[in-house]
Specification:
45% of the residues lie in helices and 4% in strands. The protein has five helices and two strands; from the N terminus they run E-H-H-E-H-H-H. The chain has a two-stranded parallel ribbon. The protein is mainly alpha-helical. The relative contact order is 0.13. It folds into two domains: 47 residues, no CATH class; 71 residues, no CATH class.
Length: 143
């Protein structure tokens, strides 16, 4: 950004905010940028982040609150490495389960003589059933 003169009052950089404090210091050591140039280019940047788990105390689709889920997650992982995205993976599994459940219910109700096990990537009708089922899926998750 500095070399390309993409900084100053006409530019606003939006940078993911999940980096560590002073993240640029370790990056400077592995680049050809001077510290003062990098700081000049980043001046006034906006750091954005997201809330990895909901702070609401509502019970989720699993019957747990996000806080209960987090305690269980931390207890099960022990000293293992954590990911900031674990709640999204958890909710993603629920989306898949609810989609399959809705698709099976539709197939049973329409007496289509098809099962979800019949899916392959060339079966456009079953693919549409899955897509519609996913689009209709809505629940309160941990994220």
């Amino acid at each position: 950004a500095y070399v390309e003169e993409m900084y100053g009052s006409k530019y606003q950089w939006i940078i993911p905010g999940w980096y560590e404090n002073l993240w640029w210091e370790s990056w400077i050591n592995s680049s050809h940028c001077l510290s003062k140039n990098l700081l000049a280019a980043m001046e006034g940047y906006i750091g954005v982040d997201f809330e990895p788990l909901s702070s609401k105390m509502n019970k989720t689709i699993s019957g747990r609150t996000p806080q209960q889920y987090e305690r269980e997650y931390n207890a099960k992982r022990g000293d293992g490495q954590s990911s900031k995205f674990h709640g999204y993976a958890y909710d993603g599994i629920w989306v898949i389960a609810k989609t399959l459940q809705r698709a099976m219910k539709y197939l049973n109700a329409t007496n289509k003589h098809q099962k979800i096990e019949d899916f392959n990537y060339t079966n456009h009708k079953l693919g549409k059933i899955f897509l519609d089922a996913m689009n209709e899926t809505n629940f309160f998750g941990v994220t």
